[in-house]
Design a protein that fits this description.
Strand order of the largest sheet: 10-9-11-12
Strand content: 25-35%
Largest sheet: 4 strands, antiparallel
Length: about 210
Amino acid sequence: MATSSGFFNAEMRNGSYDRTYLAEDFAACMRGLVTNGVIAKNLSSTALKVTAGEAGTMNVKVAPGRAWIEGYWFENSSEVTLTLEPPDPVYSRFDGIMLRLDYVTREITFRVSTGYPTSTGSAHDIQQDDEAWEIELATITVEPTDQDITDTTIFDNRASRLSCGLSKTVVNANNSLYPCTQEEYDSLQRDGGIDPDVLYVIGNWE
């Protein structure tokens, strides 16, 4: 069985340090403590909120804010403008505003994921693999007749656990909660004898 632990002070042994760690080691530690998502107390926060840009443009604005993705932290200190592709002349599409953790370039940046124009408006790509991990801040409907982006065409995904979510700490401060899946929760309730106040369903953070 392979085990790992940390973090410990390094000592010089035979000309080299006996404890060395990588950034991914720290990220793995944080991944067990903090969930992916935007750092905000509630949806009234404007942290990393996507809104329409200037009238007559295909621009959107992303507000300042912070986030966690797979144990890596991100901060946007000023408003950022992103530009969407022009609309398709025939079909509508759905574009995504992504916050992208790129393991190859070793950075977190914004990305516009352009949808595929179809008669039903096909969804865009979202990458979540060993090369990059993305969370989706907003989804934007782009119609053939659109000459600009308006707030009514922007769907805020920040509170959606499946797309983005609000970042939460996994461990409760008083250590009184029992973490469980929904299936485990239902099973424990059927068996009886478990106080529902001490059950904490993983995934139901928002």
